[in-house]
Amino acid sequence: MQAPPPSWTPPATLIVPIKGLEPGLVDNLRSLLEQDYPDYELLISVRDSADPAVARITPWLNSRAKLVVAGRGPRDASEKIGNLLTALSQARINSEVFAFADSDGRVGRGWLRGLISPLHDPAVGAATGYRWYFPDRGAFWPLVRSVWNAAIAGMFGAGDPPFAWGGAMAIRRETFEKARVAEYWLGSVSDDYQLTRAVRAAGLRIAYSAHAMVETGGGCSAREFLEWAVRQLTIARVYDAKAWRLGFAAHAVYCAAMAAGIAMLAERRFWATPVFFLTFAPGMCRGAWRERAARLLFPARKPWFDRRGWVYCWLAPAVTWIWLWVFLASLFRRRIEWRGNVYRLLGPSQTEVEE
């Protein structure tokens, strides 16, 4: 974070799909429109012009920010994929980079510059950031979601990240075409996993940019969080089965060790006390390290971390069990509901859209 991103700012098209009104939508989109970047356009893509979000955002559209009405889109792909493909077809011809964002995230003014900067290296096929959840209120389940999501954020660093995340993702136009990303998207629900597969199949790597992190707010109930988490891991199991299996095995072993320690203490085998605490310590330490890293990534959020940063350490053992439950819930699932649509995931390039 101390090193500024390289001063490489080619003309770019930034695309954000939307659906419905959500908390902070206008402010989120405005943060994308007010980027400290010399030459870019913002395309906001929606399936239906009657979407309630359209009336809210229309007053501040201008020559840089345009609305794209995508229509129905492919019948065997997600609504998001359809919105992205239509927006790409209307991107200005001089844009050398395509960047993508989600409508529920808010970014700083240097976000687009930081996101695109790794692409100056010709060996980098795509660049990515990631999100951090900042619940507006200190309710239990929104904080659990933040701790749960922080475990994924912790996998992004100096090495090759696990995938390019669709809420902060950039790719050269030339790479997008040569890697046939649009073909990978057909028949798919996931834009980011498929772009990741296309880039790696082309022999290129993905680079993470710490300058491209995204703030996500909002609350959730227990049911909303668990449905969201199960959907995330169901998609991961279909699109990256190896990583899903490794994660499942790690959490199963970790939870089994904790359960064994609890059982031994219940039988008054107090000699096992040090071993019991050692099963908790690694996860709690990792949670504390993630919280420290997030403080560096979001210095303006210091008051929030001062009040609630303890959750990343002390809730880590409990959230590990939630991770195991979500893995089990996604084990045989193929059907997901996402933004009002229902999809059956038959494979990475095979999707059935239920009417």
Q: What does this protein look like?
A:
The protein has 355 residues and is an alpha/beta fold. It folds into two domains: 12-219, Spore Coat Polysaccharide Biosynthesis Protein SpsA, Chain A; 223-354, no CATH class. The protein is 46% helix and 17% strand. It has 14 helices and 13 strands. The strands form three sheets. The protein has a seven-stranded mixed beta sheet, sandwiched between helices. Strands 5-10-7 form a three-stranded mixed beta sheet. A three-stranded antiparallel beta sheet has the order 11-12-13.
Compact summary:
The chain is an alpha/beta fold and 355 residues long.
Secondary structure layout plus pairing:
Elements: E1 12-17, H1 25-33, E2 40-46, H2 52-57, E3 65-69, H3 79-89, E4 97-101, E5 105-106, H4 111-116, E6 124-128, E7 131-133, H5 140-153, E8 168-172, H6 173-178, H7 181-185, H8 191-201, E9 205-208, E10 214-216, H9 222-239, H10 241-266, H11 273-297, H12 302-308, H13 311-314, H14 316-329, E11 335-338, E12 341-347, E13 350-354
Parallel strand pairs: 1-2, 1-4, 2-3, 6-9, 7-10
Antiparallel strand pairs: 4-8, 5-10, 6-8, 11-12, 12-13
Search tags:
355 residues, alpha/beta, Spore Coat Polysaccharide Biosynthesis Protein SpsA, Chain A, 2 domains, seven-stranded mixed β-sheet, three-stranded mixed β-sheet, 14 helices, 46% helix, globular
